[in-house]
Each structure stands twice: as C-alpha cells, then as structure tokens.
C-alpha cells in the first residue's frame, strides 16, 4: 500500500504544473474515453441474450452480439468497475488483496502448498469488469498449435489451430514493431498488445543465455513453439488493457447493450420439463431480480463460478446435487477436469549490481514521475515479468511442444518489503523472515518455473444450496509424480541459465537459504527440489477445464463443440472452463479467442431467425 501512497504523493507534488500534469494523467489513463459504467442501469424484464460475467470471455461476447442492432444484450457482473490503480502493470500483485479478487482458497492437500499460509493455495480470480484480466500479470501468449489440434482430435470440430488462429488475430491490435511474425498478428482489433518500455540488463542476459543453450529468440505467438522473448503484454500506452477496457468501454454508447455491475447471479432459470434455459436470477442492491432471455443465456463466470452456477441451477453430478439438496435437471460431470499451471515463483537469484527492482527502488520519484507523466519506465513491467521462454525437458519428446515455461522476474521476493507479492502467493511471514529477510536490500531477480502440461486434475464441488457460499476447490496439484519430476527439470534449467557468462558477469547466485520443511535434505538436489515444489509452488491463476468441451460420447463433457450445454437448450458456456486440456501458455488470450469464436457460433444460429 505504501507504493500507492507514494504514487499519489508524486502526483500531488507536481502541482506546480497541475494543468499539464492533469492532461498527461488523463491521456495515460484514458479517463475521457473510458466513462464509468452506470451502476443504476434501468433494467428491462427481457433481453435477447443475457451474459453472466464480464471477464475475458463475457466481455468479448457482449461486444460482438451487441454489434447486431436488433438484438438486446444484458451483461451481468458481480464486481464493480475498474479504477486507475488497477491499470498500473507493476502493481498487478497488489490487486489480489483488494475487492477485485474473489479471494478463493483451496482445500488442504497432502501434495502441494504445504508451506503456504494455512497449508492452502491462494486461488486468485478477478471480480469486476474485465474479470481476471484486471488482476492478472498481463502476459499475452496463446498456447501452442498442438494444444488446439488436440482439442479438435478429442471430438471438437472447428477448434484446430488453423480454425482458431483467425480469432486470435481478430481480437488483437499488435503495436510491436520488431521481432514478430506479422502473419500471426492482428493490427486493428480491440485488444492492444505491446512491450514494456523498460529495458533491463537482466533481460538481455536472459535472452543471451537462452541462445547459448541453443534456444532461439522468437515471437512465441508466431510460428515457433519453443524459444525466448521479451514479454508481450495486454497494455496500451503503458497501462493495463483489460477485457473491459478493450471490449466494453469503447461500446458503452450502444443502446442495445446494458451492463449491470454489482449484480450477483444466483441461479440460471431452467424449465425442468423442457430443459430449456429461459432467464436468470440475481441480487443487486440487496434486491432480487428475475430477468428473462428470449434467445440464450451465456455463462461466462469463469472456471470456478461457472460450474458452481450450473450446479446451483440443477446441472451437475447427480450425487453432488442430491447432497446439496438441489433437484437434478441434467446429470453432467460439471466441476471435473480442473487443470491449472503451477509455478515455482519463490527462487531468488542475488546479484552484485543495482540492475533489478524492489519495493524500495520503486519509490524513486523519477520512476513514479516517468510513469504518471509519460506512461513509461519500470512501472510498465507487466506484473514484474520481463520475459519468458518455452522449453522442453528430458521427459518431453514431442517436437516443438514445450512442457516448461521460464518467466524472468525483474526482482526477487527479498525485495517484497511491503508484502504484495507474498500476499498473492500465500508466503507466510515466518518463511519470508527466515529465507528472504537476511538478503533485504541485496539486488535480485527471479526465474519462475511453470508446469505447462500438468497430468494432475482436480475438481470444483458445490458446498450446499446457498448461492452465496463459496464452492469447494480441490485442485489436486502434483498428485501425479510425473508433474513433480518435470518441475525439477525446469528448476535445474533455470539455475543453469544463471551460470552462463551472461549472468555471471553480475555474479548471479541462488539464494542459499533452504525452505522450511526441506532443510534436512541436501540443498539443491533433486530430492530437495521435490520437497520444495510441494511446499512453496503456487498457482498462476490459470484454472480451466471444469465445463469440458467434448462430444456426447465423452462422459466428462459438459458442452459440445458449439459450447452448448449437453441436454439443456438455450444455454452456452463461454470461458476458460470449456477447455478440454489446458494450453501450453497463458490463458487470457485463449479465453478471448473462445469468446470471439463463440460469438460467431451464436450469430450463425440466430442471424436469420
């Protein structure tokens, strides 16, 4: 929180140039062109389409459906509108301790998060216009072409890479000039993609080290599945370009689109006899609303809330619904197939020169001034991530298909003086004081190891029939030993990078203090890393798969290839929960692609009706 105060202080301290500063401030944060959403919209009793959730899927669908002037669209969002502080890329971790995060936690497990607060995993999910795209780390990657070809081969026609690539391109407004495969990018879409304006010597060492290990510097969103690059991010002019800012704010003038914030959907209305969805119930300002849908209800509440809402509405595993006292309308494996990316984000590499960032470094007035006035500098680093690399371990023999991502962080946890990053990860203060505090003030960076293709799968379960009670989150991280083995190899690759001459000119070295719970094992051995992975690995917030897309012959499928819920009319799911397998990359861009394709599927059905 202190960084925020300093940010405000710097702004106020520039009062001698107040008028010009205000103009620059408005330009950077686009205040004139991004009107706030009216919380008191006059709701109608009936709409053609009702979209539940204004995240990366719902925002896109609401935009594209409201392009048809004769169709009325209601977009319901449980959270509130964004504020300018959510737009500062480097402050991404801070958003997870605000009301913009649902604040979910997992159940205790024997296989993961053993050393975190309460021995539970933090599960950050966005609550507000833009959904998780207002609290994520802004990294723009699309996954690998083999991910989508697998989707299609699993019985989902139209979801192969060649079919989905045009939808990625349609969304994107790529402002990158160098080192991109232009044939794979869009340049006139709603979603702005750019690099941070900040260049660090650590990033240069990262990319040079990769080349010395025979990995190319590539456009990872282009034709190559393996390689390293500076981070591409969903930013515009150095500020966050959330799904809301990209797809909703430019179209709020459309009279056929109503956006209702702070509207908590509690049930999808489904006729038990005809099995037809016909509306929704939701709470707003302590009042219950019941609004009907003439054509379809589109569920885009995310991989935790979408399955929860389906189960609250009578669609889900019969045995779970009976336990919760909810009549079963359609018996489907809702909530199964949960997949996520776990990361070892807790490794710190110390260096001898002040070429990294920390909470203390970021209080320098010149950094704050440069961001507020010019939209430049280290505050534009997306979540602190300078670059990433997609690599293969010895366990992976599929050509051009990574199983590990390495993410370069501009600073280390020992610089997390005010606690935003450790609060995000769930790092206890006792662990921080023991492992990181002895190196307070020492320049450092991190390389996070990300498990891209986990074998372990979990579940989201309903707790009871009360719509305001959280669901049960049982992720089963590292239940499969192969996932741990792959992570160990990824960690060793990250450490090997820091031993090249490009990092050694800064005397890069791994923090030698062992993690609590693993001290008895020889430091930096495979056994030590296996223990550390189970104690201090954390989620990237890429939960997907809980409303699996697949044909009727797939007993765990919830929606078909057109994203229609099996056995229920007038109801589709459009978010990350439909992914049959998690992609080998970050999920935000993929969910927007799903929204684009879903909108075309819906338009195709209703255009001539």
TrEMBL record:
Binding-site residues, FAD: 132, 265, 576
Signal peptide feature range: 1-16
The protein's required cofactors: FAD
Domain Glucose-methanol-choline oxidoreductase N-terminal: start-end pairs: 126-149, 302-316
Family membership noted in the UniProt record: Belongs to the GMC oxidoreductase family.
Keyword annotations of the record: FAD, Flavoprotein, Signal
Keyword Signal annotated: yes
Entry keyword annotation includes Transport: no
Protein's name according to its UniProt entry: Glucose-methanol-choline oxidoreductase N-terminal domain-containing protein
Xref: InterPro entries: FAD/NAD-bd_sf (IPR036188), GMC_OxRdtase (IPR012132), GMC_OxRdtase_N (IPR000172), GMC_OxRtase_C (IPR007867)
A GO molecular-function descriptor: flavin adenine dinucleotide binding
Organism name: Brassicogethes aeneus (Rape pollen beetle)
Active site: 542 (proton donor), 586 (proton acceptor)
């Amino acid at each position: 929180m202190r960084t925020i105060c300093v940010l405000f202080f710097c702004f106020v301290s520039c009062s001698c140039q107040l008028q010009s500063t205000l103009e620059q401030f408005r330009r950077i944060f686009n205040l004139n062109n991004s009107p706030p959403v009216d919380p008191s919209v006059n709701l109608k009793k009936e709409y053609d389409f009702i979209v539940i959730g204004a995240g990366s899927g719902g925002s896109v669908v609401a935009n594209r459906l409201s392009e048809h002037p004769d169709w009325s669209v209601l977009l319901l969002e449980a959270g509130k509108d964004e504020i300018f502080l959510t737009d500062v890329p480097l402050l991404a971790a801070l958003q997870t301790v605000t009301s913009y995060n649902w604040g979910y936690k997992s159940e205790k497990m024997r296989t993961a998060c053993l050393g975190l607060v309460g021995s539970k995993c933090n599960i950050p999910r966005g609550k507000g216009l833009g959904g998780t795209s207002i609290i994520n780390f802004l990294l723009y990657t699309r996954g690998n072409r083999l991910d989508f070809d697998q989707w299609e081969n699993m019985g989902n026609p139209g979801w192969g890479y060649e079919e989905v690539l045009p939808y990625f391109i349609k969304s994107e407004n790529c402002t990158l000039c160098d080192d991109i495969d232009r044939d794979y990018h869009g340049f006139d879409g709603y979603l702005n993609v750019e690099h941070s304006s900040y260049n660090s010597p650590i990033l240069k060492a990262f990319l040079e080290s990769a080349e010395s290990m025979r990995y190319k510097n590539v456009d990872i969103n282009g034709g190559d599945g393996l390689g390293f690059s500076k981070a591409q991010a969903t930013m515009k002019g150095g500020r966050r370009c959330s799904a809301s800012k990209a797809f909703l704010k430019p179209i709020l003038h459309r009279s056929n689109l109503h956006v209702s914030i702070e509207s908590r959907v509690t049930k999808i209305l489904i006729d038990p006899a005809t099995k037809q969805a016909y509306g929704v119930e939701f709470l707003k300002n302590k009042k219950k609303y019941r609004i009907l849908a003439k054509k379809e209800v589109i569920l885009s509440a995310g991989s935790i809330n979408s399955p929860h809402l389906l189960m609250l509405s009578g669609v889900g595993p019969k045995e779970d619904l009976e336990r919760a006292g909810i009549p079963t309308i359609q018996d489907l494996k809702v909530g199964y197939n949960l997949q996520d990316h776990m990361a070892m984000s807790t490794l710190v590499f110390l260096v001898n020169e002040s070429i990294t960032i920390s909470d203390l470094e970021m209080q320098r007035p010149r950094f704050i001034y440069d961001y507020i006035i010019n939209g430049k500098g280290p505050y534009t680093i997306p979540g602190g991530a300078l670059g990433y690399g997609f690599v293969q371990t010895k366990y992976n023999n599929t050509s051009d298909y990574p199983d590990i991502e390495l993410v370069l962080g501009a600073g280390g946890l020992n610089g997390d003086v005010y606690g935003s990053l450790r609060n995000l990860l769930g790092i206890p203060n006792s662990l921080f004081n023991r492992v990181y505090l002895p190196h307070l003030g020492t320049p450092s960076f991190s390389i996070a190891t990300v498990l891209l293709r986990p074998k372990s799968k979990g579940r989201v379960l309903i707790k009871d029939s009360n719509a305001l009670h959280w669901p049960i989150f049982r992720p089963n991280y590292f239940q499969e030993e192969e996932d741990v083995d792959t992570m160990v190899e990824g960690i060793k690759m990250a450490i090997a990078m820091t031993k090249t001459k490009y990092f050694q000119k800064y005397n890069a070295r791994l923090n030698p203090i062992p993690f609590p719970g693993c001290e008895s094992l020889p430091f930096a051995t495979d056994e030590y890393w296996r223990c550390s992975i189970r104690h201090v690995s954390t989620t990237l917030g890429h939960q997907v798969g809980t409303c699996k897309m697949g044909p009727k012959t797939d007993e765990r499928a919830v929606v078909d290839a057109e994203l229609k819920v099996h056995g229920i009319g007038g109801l589709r799911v459009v978010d990350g929960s439909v992914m049959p397998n998690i992609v080998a990359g970050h999920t935000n861009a993929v969910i927007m692609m799903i929204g684009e394709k879903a909108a075309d599927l819906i338009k195709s059905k209703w255009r001539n009706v």
